[in-house]
Backbone:
């Protein structure tokens, strides 16, 4: 079973034109520029950007979700999230119109759109999914120093020290916490699937990890 990383969700609603852009920001793996006069709300697992015109009854919303591990393809992830995130939020009368899968710098990016309704408001819903397998597979191989097919506690500690700049004590503490939580089969180390889950579970670690291997 292949391990991938679910990277972000992008959902656009309604018909609201934004002529200007303002500050640049980064959330998890996504860098973006907030359109001028848009509002930002931070949530436990994501960021929402929104704007609207009460007189015209129009609005737009963009939601960026934190990356998370998954064991299916980006296509399968897209189908699941379309049902769970789009269809449950707005009324969509047709299947999404899919764009050609984009493969760039190791990423597989899939986008689909469909006309939608939210009460009396008509607009467009868009979902964008990205998956990355080769980068994390490369990292797993690189940090599996003794090539035994698992990331041991010392190897995980070394990774954390390298990408986060932690002291030996702090790195070992975080590594032990992750090992206890994600070494499901109690093998004394993390296999590729467990390693993917562990890296994606800690916001600071996952952000530092992706920046270091970009």
Residues:
């Amino acid at each position: 079973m292949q391990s991938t990383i679910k990277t972000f969700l992008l959902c656009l609603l309604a018909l609201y034109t934004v002529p200007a852009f303002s500050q640049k920001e980064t959330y998890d793996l996504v860098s973006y520029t907030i359109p001028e006069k848009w509002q930002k709300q931070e949530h436990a697992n994501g960021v929402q950007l929104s704007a609207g015109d009460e007189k015209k009854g129009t609005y737009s919303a963009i939601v960026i979700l934190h990356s998370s591990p998954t064991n299916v393809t980006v296509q399968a992830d897209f189908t699941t999230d379309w049902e769970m995130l789009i269809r449950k939020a707005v009324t969509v009368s047709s299947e999404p119109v899919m764009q050609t899968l984009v493969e760039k710098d190791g990423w597989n990016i899939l986008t689909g759109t469909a006309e939608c309704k939210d009460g009396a408001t008509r607009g467009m819903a868009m979902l964008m999914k990205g998956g990355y397998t080769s980068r994390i597979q490369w990292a797993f191989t690189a940090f599996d120093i003794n090539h035994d097919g698992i990331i041991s506690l010392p190897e995980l500690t070394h990774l954390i020290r390298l990408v986060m700049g932690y002291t030996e004590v702090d790195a070992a503490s975080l590594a032990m916490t992750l090992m206890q939580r994600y070494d499901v089969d109690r093998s004394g180390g993390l296999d590729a699937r467990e390693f993917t889950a562990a890296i994606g579970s800690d916001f600071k670690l996952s952000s530092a990890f992706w920046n270091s291997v970009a």
User: Anything to note?
Assistant: DSSP finds six helices and 14 strands in the chain. Residues 142 and 194 are 16 Å apart (CA to CA).
